[in-house]
Amino acid sequence: MSEAGMISAPWLEDIEARRDDLIALTQDLIRIPTLNPPGEAYLEICEYLAARLRPRHFEIELIRAHGSPGDSDKYPRWNIVARREGRAPGACVHFNSHTDVVEVGRGWTTDPFGGELKDGKIYGRGSCDMKGGLAASIIAAEAFIDAFPDFNGAIEISGTADEESGGYGGVAYLAEKGYFDPSRVQHVIIPEPLNKDRVCLGHRGVWWAEIETKGHIAHGSMPFLGDCAVRHMGAVLHEFETSLYPALAGKRTAMPVVPEGARQSTMNINSMHGGQTEPEEDFTGFPSACVPDSCRMVIDRRYIIEEDPEEVRQEVVDILEKVSAQRPDFSYDIKELWHVSPTMTDNDAPVVRSVSRSIEQVLQKSPEYVVSPGTYDQKHIDRIGRLKDCIAYGPGILDLAHQPDEYVGVDDMIDSAKVMALSLKDLLGA
């Protein structure tokens, strides 16, 4: 029995009875290896969800995001939107979960795609982020429909692609096609793993850019005849360390960002490539002796709502110009990859109030209001769909996302499913 066992409503207790189904559903989802990049098994997981929801009288749409970043015939960007109409017109509550997962990485002691159940936890890549949340929302919707078959309005469940790489082949595409128009959908809950007693109101802003420093190729035994692009990039990194990072540490926000370290502006060096392309794994030879004439670095800058987006870009450009003034023959290019503004839903929005009341009833405690350190698909629902009544709420511990031995707790999923089901009852007036 989870800590929510004190709730006496029989239909909520029915969610406890669905524990084995919830476990099996979560395991099945984990065992579909929807790795992104490159974007594998997207159609497979959409078809699995369709087979699950169609018998429950959900109308199913499988939607390929043609022309979106990453979409190809080899790796098509497939999404599913399942809609269950009620007895009469009314509001629509939409549960949106991304189906893609990040690379496995090293350090696992369990099978990353095994879905192993151990000590009340289900292990696997994507268990926490966010297939456990997807499974919990399905169980919540099914329990609600069984208890209130004559509800008014509509329930939607979506499984969308590419959230881990920006969401442009998933929620952004659907938003552009009108699926999140406020006339069609009124309330959105995204079951991201922000902990079961938290309501996530939004996220920080993000600005990604690629910086390239340029040089001149020459023989490695005579580097003085060339110009090393990697050394130029080293000077940029030094300036980042000595001036930019200290400045970012001093920028603090009033947004309730978690964890504490993310309440400031941050920047991650996402990748760096200089010189010759790395050889294939089975190549046994040696590299040739060349001075690298190009070095590329991708930066991942997260910024707070108090910052001006243009200043976020300009502070990087200013550093590049400073290095240029100090180093002979320094040449660079900078290219913006993508940019998303910070977003935060009001505390008194209908979905916030509803989920907060449900948390109080199920967990017997007041919810914590938080903001995510990284973006998730609320950005597209807000900016493209123009739908403001959107939050993230779901099971799982945020710090486990993208880690080895990622897991989701079964009791946490049960409790979160109860919260979601109660919110459905409230928002649809059942």
TrEMBL record:
<dbReference type="Pfam" id="PF01546">
    <property type="entry name" value="Peptidase_M20"/>
</dbReference>
<dbReference type="GO" id="GO:0046872">
    <property type="term" value="F:metal ion binding"/>
</dbReference>
<dbReference type="InterPro" id="IPR011650">
    <property type="entry name" value="Peptidase_M20_dimer"/>
</dbReference>
<keyword id="KW-0479">Metal-binding</keyword>
<keyword id="KW-0862">Zinc</keyword>
<dbReference type="InterPro" id="IPR010182">
    <property type="entry name" value="ArgE/DapE"/>
</dbReference>
<feature type="domain" description="Peptidase M20 dimerisation">
    <location>
        <begin position="202"/>
        <end position="325"/>
    </location>
</feature>
<dbReference type="InterPro" id="IPR036264">
    <property type="entry name" value="Bact_exopeptidase_dim_dom"/>
</dbReference>
<dbReference type="GO" id="GO:0016787">
    <property type="term" value="F:hydrolase activity"/>
</dbReference>
<keyword id="KW-0170">Cobalt</keyword>
<comment type="similarity">
    <text>Belongs to the peptidase M20A family.</text>
</comment>
<dbReference type="InterPro" id="IPR050072">
    <property type="entry name" value="Peptidase_M20A"/>
</dbReference>
<protein>
    <submittedName>
        <fullName>Acetylornithine deacetylase/succinyl-diaminopimelate desuccinylase family protein</fullName>
    </submittedName>
</protein>
<dbReference type="Pfam" id="PF07687">
    <property type="entry name" value="M20_dimer"/>
</dbReference>
<dbReference type="InterPro" id="IPR002933">
    <property type="entry name" value="Peptidase_M20"/>
</dbReference>
<keyword id="KW-0378">Hydrolase</keyword>
